[in-house]
Design goal:
Layout lengths: L1 E5 L4 H12 L3 E6 L3 H4 L8 H8 L4 E5 L5 H11 L3 E4 L6 H6 L1 H22 L4 E7 L12 E3 L4 E3 L18 H18 L4 E7 L1 E3 L11 H11 L3 E4 L5 E6 H13 L5 E5 L6 E3 H12 L5 E4 L8 E2 L4 H7 L7 H14 L1 H6 L4
Parallel strand pairs: 1-2, 1-4, 2-3, 4-5, 5-8, 8-12, 9-11, 10-14, 11-15
Antiparallel strand pairs: 6-7, 11-13
Helix pairs in contact: 1-9, 4-6, 6-7, 8-10, 8-12, 10-12
The structure holds nicotinamide-adenine-dinucleotide.
């Protein structure tokens, strides 16, 4: 099997690439290494993963932009992939508010470019699209919540399922551009014959994640703890997400790509059993590192959902899959990885 991974230097993409290359597949990593620029940082981030993948057998790296249709087309024609994991994207809500056009060009236009490039060389191919819970916008705020000492929670104890409406709500430009890609991916399945798995991801975390304040909060907090630098919490820190270890996400992708599951949309996260608030993450990091950093509280960020938890029942059933790595175990692995790669802490954004 030949697999092309857009955004293959990113956190999700590099784990997909490593997994499939390790299984003997030919993997083509396509990335323009723009993560740091997106977050206004002049320090390196995904360049680390790019170099890491250079050492892997079966991996070919192509440094190009998904917005460059000619370059993308050349790459697809050269390698003719059987499957694509489309993980390239601009993942920052803040960036999308500052520059909605650039956000649109990467997330929306970039996605249709990738779908077309695949259709051109392999009209019966498979594509996994990395969508987001942000497609539901502030419709998720209609679910009643309760407040406890360290967290908010959905009163029902259940997560948000795929039937939640994506209409008549505020999304942020990021939510809209990702929803556009999400709808194109669905439509290329319905009307044009590509088998597409749309994964609406909650909070994915893991090693090789270069967190910034605007995105990748688990990695960001862990890096700050190990740097001994202060953390700013926007709101009261009780906001909750379901968190999913990146290896568990790749398991779900693999089940979809190599199995017979028809095109579908899946909410994807750790589910109700793997939820975490910011305050709880700070407590876990204190325990794991034995350190305390200064925590500043600032005003709530506009559009920050108080609670988002995925209902993952559909993915569990259709893909015969479930999350295996508990949040505390995963966070420990992130801390250990950072400790073993201390130069990352020197180069990570100092803020
Ligand atoms: N990590 C999460 O919690 C999460 C949650 C929901 C959705 N997502 C989506 O999953 C995808 C992967 O997320 P991630 O955490 O690995 O992010 P990431 O920033 O680590 O990876 C994205 C990669 O895409 C590359 N890229 C950006 N624009 C590009 C372009 N125009 N051309 C080529 N490459 C480009 C970046 O350089 C980066 O390596 C993103 O599309 C993101 O929107 C992530």
């Amino acid at each position: 099997m030949k697999i092309l991974v857009t955004g293959g230097a990113g956190m999700v993409g590099s784990h997909v690439a490593e997994r499939f290359a390790g299984k003997g597949c030919q993997v083509i990593v396509y990335d323009n290494l723009m993560r740091s620029a997106i977050f206004g940082s002049d320090t390196k981030s995904v360049e680390y993963n790019w170099n890491y993948l250079r050492t892997k057998k079966n991996v070919v790296r192509v440094k190009d932009d998904i917005r460059d249709r000619a370059a993308l087309g050349r790459c697809f024609k050269k390698y003719k992939p059987d499957a694509v994991v489309h993980a390239a994207g601009q993942p920052g809500v803040g960036f999308s508010l500052n520059d909605p056009l650039e956000d649109f060009s990467i997330n929306a236009a970039g996605t249709i470019n990738v779908l077309e490039a695949l259709r051109d060389v392999n009209p019966k191919g498979v594509l996994v699209y990395c969508s987001t819970n942000k497609v539901y916008g502030d419709n998720v705020n209609q679910y009643p919540i309760a407040e406890a000492k360290t967290r908010y929670r959905f009163k029902s104890g259940k997560g948000v399922s795929e039937v939640c409406s994506v209409d008549m709500c505020g999304h942020t430009p990021y939510g809209v551009s990702k929803l556009t890609g999400d709808l194109y991916a669905q439509d290329y399945a319905k009307t044009l014959g590509i088998r597409t798995g749309v994964f609406r991801m909650s909070c994915i975390y893991g090693t090789r994640q270069f967190g910034f304040e605007d995105q990748g909060w688990i990695a960001w907090f862990a890096i700050r703890f190990l740097q001994g630098k202060p953390i700013t919490v926007y709101g009261d820190g009780k906001q909750v997400r379901d968190v999913l270890w990146v290896g568990d996400l790749v398991n779900a992708f693999e089940k979809f790509m190599t199995g017979k599951c028809p095109s579908n949309v899946f909410n994807m996260g750790g589910g109700p059993a793997n939820t975490l608030s910011l305050l709880e993450l700070i407590g876990i990091l204190q325990d794991l590192t034995g350190r305390h950093v200064k925590v500043r509280f600032d005003a709530w960020r506009k559009f920050d959902q108080k609670v988002y938890v995925s209902d993952i029942a559909k993915a569990c059933q259709a893909l015969e899959w479930r999350p295996r790595v508990a949040a505390k175990e995963g966070i420990m692995r992130v801390v250990e990885w950072l400790m073993a790669n201390k130069r990352i802490l020197q180069h990570a954004d100092q803020g």
